[in-house]
Design a protein that fits this description.
Blueprint (H helix, E strand, L loop, with lengths): L7 E4 L2 E4 L10 H5 L3 E2 L2 E4 L6 E3 L1 H14 L8 H15 L4 E9 L13 E8 L12 E9 L17 H12 L4 E5 L5 E3 L4 E6 L2 E4 L10 H12 L3 E4 L4 H6 L2 E6 L3 E8 L2 E2 L7 H14 L10 E3 L1
Parallel strand pairs: 8-9, 8-15, 12-13
Antiparallel strand pairs: 1-2, 1-7, 3-6, 4-5, 4-6, 5-17, 6-7, 9-10, 11-12, 11-14, 14-15, 15-16
């Protein structure tokens, strides 16, 4: 998990001290969940710090702001360059990076008319989200369904989308599990609270499609491309809940989770209750690429 932050934060084109990053309690995005965020990894490599798929993450950040009509004046290039600068300024060999866009106006009311917007970029030291669970998670299918695009834009990474995830995760952990798995409104497997999900059956890698109202994860896309380049057959299709129980392997993917095996779903053992060979192979290749140890997909790294 994240350690206590220090150093500098980038805010609207300038660096401020960590302890000086404050907003008013009536800031619109704090009151109404209208903030937009991203999660990006910077990994240590032999050539120094390298940010993983920076351009793709900031592209999604910009698209999420467009969906929610957040009027940020900074360009994509400026935000990408600021992300590099925050790692350089804080002299961090590795980090979890959090760009955040928010309405900075103060007041009560839903309307965003006339409100300005700010962008901040923060970086913290961060291990794997499921530190201590690399041998497998015990997951519970949630009674809460994943939001759909008829309710909120499921494809945007917005603060107000995530109480759905918080409720699902809390329900699972209160019941003694490590994490939740959410279903779509049609009853198909969607994703974890903050992760995409994959299953393996008969050496075929399967993941839910966009129509399951998933967030189109950057790590998810990376795993698909790494698998295909390794000769693994990949399918994007609906997954029924019962398929989780009979799969050979199940795992989560995400910036914070990286690749984390799931070895039990609803108290049913998956794959002999241990990480499977395809999961382990993909995790090793992903780590090798992210740490600059492989020339394959070298364009995914932005060296600081």
């Amino acid at each position: 998990m994240a350690n206590k932050g220090n150093g500098y934060i980038w805010l609207d084109g300038r660096f401020i001290r960590w302890e000086d990053a404050k907003v008013h309690l009536l800031t619109h995005s704090l009151q109404y969940g209208s903030g937009i965020f991203e999660g990006i990894r910077c990994y240590s490599t032999a050539r120094g710090p390298a940010i993983f798929r920076l351009h793709e993450h900031i592209t999604r950040f910009m698209e999420s702001m467009k969906i929610y009509c957040v009027p940020v004046k900074a360009t994509q290039r400026q935000i990408e360059q600021a992300t590099i600068q925050i790692i350089r300024k804080n002299k961090m060999p590795d980090a979890y990076i959090r760009p955040f866009a928010f309405y900075n106006g103060v007041g009560i009311g839903f309307s965003t008319a006339g409100l300005g917007a700010s962008v901040s970029i923060m970086a913290v030291r961060f291990g794997n989200l499921f530190q201590g669970h690399q041998n497998g998670l015990r997951c519970k299918t949630s009674t809460w369904h994943r939001i759909n695009s008829g309710i909120l834009p499921a494809g945007a990474k917005a603060s107000g989308n995530y109480p759905n995830s918080i409720l699902a995760s809390k329900e699972a952990k209160d019941a003694g599990y490590d994490e939740a798995i959410l279903m779509s409104d049609s009853g198909m497997v969607a994703e974890g609270p903050g992760e995409n999900i994959f299953i393996v059956k008969d050496d075929v890698l399967v993941t839910p499609p966009r129509s399951a109202n998933i967030l189109m994860g950057i790590t998810r896309d990376s795993i698909i491309r790494i698998a295909q380049s390794s000769g693994v057959r990949v399918e994007e299709r609906d997954i029924r809940k019962e398929e989780l129980y009979t799969s050979d392997e199940v795992f989560f993917s995400g910036t914070a989770a990286e690749i984390t095996p799931i070895t039990s779903v609803d108290s049913r053992s998956v794959g002999g209750a241990k990480p499977g060979p395809i999961t382990l192979s993909l995790a090793a290749k992903y780590s090798s690429i992210a740490h600059g140890e492989s020339k394959e997909f070298g364009g995914w790294l932005t060296y600081v």
